[in-house]
Amino acid sequence: MKKLVFLSLFLSVFFGYSQKKALQAKSISQNISIDGKLDENAWENAAIASDFITLEPDNGKPAPEGKKTEVKILYDNDAIYIGAKMFDDEPDKILKEISQRDNFGTADLFGIFINGFNDGQQDFMFYVSAADVQGDCIMTDATGEDYSWDAVWISKAVLNENGWTVEIKIPYSALRFSQENKQIWGINFFREIKRTRYKYTWNFVDRKIGTFTQQAGTLEGIENIKPPTRLFLMPYASYYLNAGEGQKTYGTVKGGMDIKYGINDAFTVDAILIPDFGQTKYDDQILNLGPFEQQFNENRAFFTEGTDLFNKGKMFYSRRIGGRPSEPDLNDNEKIIEQVQNVNLINALKLSGRTKNGLGVGILNAVTEKTFATIQDTITGDTRRVVVEPLTNYNVLVLDQRFRKNSSVTFINTNVTRNGHFRDANVTGLVWDLNTKANTYNLSGNVKYSTINAEEDKRGMYATLSFAETAGKYRYSFGSDFVTKDFNPNDLGINFYTNYYNFFNNVNYRILNPTKLFNSFRINLNNYIEFNKDSGKTQDASINANVNLTTVKNNYYGMGITVYPVEICDYYEPRTDGRYVTIPRKIDAWASVSTNYNHKFAIDINPSISVVDEPGRAAFGVDIGPRYRFNDKLLLTYTFSFLKRNNNKGYIDSYDDDDNENTPETIVFANRDVITYANTLSGKYAINSMMTLNLAVRQYWSSAENKNILKLDQDGTLDPYSQYTENKNSNFYSWNADLSYSWWFAPGSQLSVLYRNNASNFERVIYKDFKRSVTNLLNNDALKHVFSISVKYFIDYNAVKNKIRKRA
C-alpha cells in the first residue's frame, strides 16, 4: 500500500507537471472594490488556482504548505479581476521595501502572466509587490522582459496575520485577445518570497527547456466579451526655468499630447505630437579615446516602450533620431559660436501588433527639423549660418512571422531620407530564429544589406549564422560572422566593426537545482577568432573561461580570465583605411562579488586587471558599490570607480606630406597613462507607493597624459617620433545632479518635478588635483541649472464613454 501511495505521489510530481493546468473564470455583475480585502460575495465561489511549484532555485519541487498561494479570477464586461492570497507562516519576515514603479526593490512579489491568444508567443505580465508597488512588462522568449511597456490598471496589496493579499483589476484595454465568443487564454501565476529568493509558478515551468512563455496553463470560462476601443489620450504640460553663467534666466512653457489607438484587437498606433524629453535621464559621458563614438542608452519612453519588434536584428539605434547634429566643416580661423545640442524632433509615430496567425508588423516613422550652426571668423568677426542637419525622415518597417509557437523569420528595413543634397541611407535585413519543437536546439542568423546614397554610393553586407543546444545542464553553441568593408547601418543603426570574418563557440555547464553550497552555478568556456577580410591577418583571438554562482545565502560571486595568445592587428585604431597597429599578447582577469541585497547593508566589488606582453604596459581597476537600506522607504547607493592604464598606446593625430603625394599618411600615436575616477550616488525616499523623491549624482574625471610620441609604421609597429610637438593631452571632467519628485496621482497620470544642474569641461592641460577637477565645476560660472514641472494626464476613451452613459 505504501508503495502505491509513493508511486502515485511520484507520478503526480514528476509527470503531472507536464500537463497544462486549467482555471475557470467566474462571470460577475456586482462591483468589485479594489481594496485588497477580497470580501465581496463573488470571490467566495470562484475556482481556486493553488499547488504552486518551485521555479528556482529548486526547480520542480512543490511549494511548502506554510508558503501556499491561492488565486481566483472574476470577470465582467469591462475587466478581469484577480484575487490572490499569499500565505506565510512567518508574516513578520515579509520584505516590503517601497520603490518606484517597475522597480520592486527588496519586496515579495505576486504576478499574473496573460496571453490572450494562447499561442505561447508573448505574455503581458502584471506584478504587485507586498509594498503595493506595481510593475508590468511584455515578455517574449526571444527578447526577455520589456519593462518599458506600461499599462493602466488598478491594484491593492494588504499585509495580514496570515501573509498578504492582492486584489487586481485589469481592464480589457490593457490586454490583447481575439473576438471569439469563448475565450481560452494562456495564463500563469508567479510568486517570489524575497527573503529566501525562492520563486514559484502555478503551472510548472521546466528550466531544462529553453522557453518560458510556452509553459503556461490556461484560463477558461470567459465568454461573450468584446475587445474594447483602445483609445488613450495623454495630454501634457510642462514648464522649464533655465539659468547659467553668461545667459539670461528664461522660462519655457511646453504642451503636447501622446496618443495610443488600437486599430483592432492586435494593432496599436502610438503618436507623439510636439514631444518633450526635457526630463529624461542625463547621459553618462566619458573621455572617449577610441576610434568609435560612445553609445548611449535610450531614456525616452516613446523609443523604449513596446519596441521589441524594432530591435530584431539589432538594426535600430533610436538615439540617431533627435541626436547630436553633425559637426560643420570649418575654414582656417573659424570657430563655432552657436550650435544646438540635439536636433529637435517634430513628431513621431509607430504602429505595432501581431495577427492571430502570428504575423507581427511594426512601422516607426519620425521627422526631425532642419538645424543650423553659427560660425564666426576669428579675425574679421564675420559670421555665417550653415545647415548641419537637414529636414530628415526616419522610417523602420518590420514583418515578423512566428510559427510553431517558438520560431520566427523577420524582414526588416530601415530608411533615412534627408532633404536636399545630403546623403540618404537604406538597410534591409532578413533574420531567423528557429527552434526544434522540444526547444532543445536553435538555429539563428541574419543577412543585412546596406546602401548609402551620397557623392560616392557604397553598399555592404553583414551575415551571421549560429547553432546552439538550448536545453539541459550541458549546452553549447558555435557560429560565424562575415562583414564587408562598406557595410554601414549607422544612419539609423549602430555598428563599429567591418571588413572581417570570424568563428566562435561556447561550451557551458549549469546546475538546474540547488546543492548544499549553491543555489545557482554556471561555468562557460568561450573561443573567438577574427580575421581581416582583405589581408587575412588576425584581428582578434581569445580564449575565455568564467564562472558565475550564487550561494545558498544568496551572495553572488563571479570570476573570469581571457587569454589573447597571439599578436593581433587592430585595423580600427589608426583610423586610416588599410593601416593597422600590432597589439601584443595579453591576459585579462576579473572578479565580482555582490552580497545579498536582502540585508540592510550590501556591497558590490568588481576588480579587474590586464597584463600585456610589453614592459610596463598594464591596466587595473576596481568598482566598489556599497548600499544601505535604512528602512522600507529610504535607500542610498554609492559607487566608486577607478581605472588606470599604464603605457597605453593610442592614436592622437594624422597628416599628409604636402610635398610628396606618394608618401603614406603619417599616423601619430602616443604612449600615455590614462586614469579615470567616477563617483555616483543614487538615493530614493518613498513617501508611499505613489510618491517618491529621487536623487542621482555623478562626478567623472578622466585624463590621458602623453609621455612620448610614436609614429605608426607600415608593418604595424610603433617607433619614437620626436618631430611631433603638439599638445594632445586629454583632460575631461563632468558633473551631473538630478533631484526629482514623482507622484502618480491617478492611474496613468503623473506629476514630475525636477531640479538639475550639470557642467563639463575638456582641456589639454592636466592638473593632477582631484579637488580642482570637482570644484571647478561646482560654481555659478560653470553650472547650468534647470528647474521643471511636468504634468501628464491619462484619459481612457472607454472610461469617459461609460461616465457619459451613466449620467445620461
Detailed description of the structure:
- One of its GO terms (biological process) is carbohydrate catabolic process.
- Residues 34-188 form the Carbohydrate-binding domain.
- InterPro entries: Carb-bd_dom_fam9, DUF5916.
- By secondary structure, the chain is mainly β.
- It has a domain at 22-228: Immunoglobulin-like (Sandwich).
- The protein is 4% helix and 54% strand.
- It has a 24-stranded antiparallel β-barrel. Strands 1, 3, 6, 7, 8, 9, 12, 13 and 14 form a 9-stranded mixed sheet that branches. Strands 2-4-5-11-10 form a 5-stranded mixed sheet, with no helix packed on it.
- Mean pLDDT is 91; it is low at 1-17.
Which CATH C-level class of the domain at 22-228 is it?
Mainly Beta
CATH fold description of the domain at 22-228? Immunoglobulin-like
Gross geometry? globular
Distance between the termini: 69 Å
Class inferred from helices and paired strands? mainly beta
Number of strands: 45
Helix content: under 10%
Put simply, the count of helices is 4
Task: Report strand %.
Answer: over 45%
Tell me, rounded to a whole number, the average pLDDT: 91
Q: What CATH architecture label of the domain at 22-228 applies?
A: Sandwich
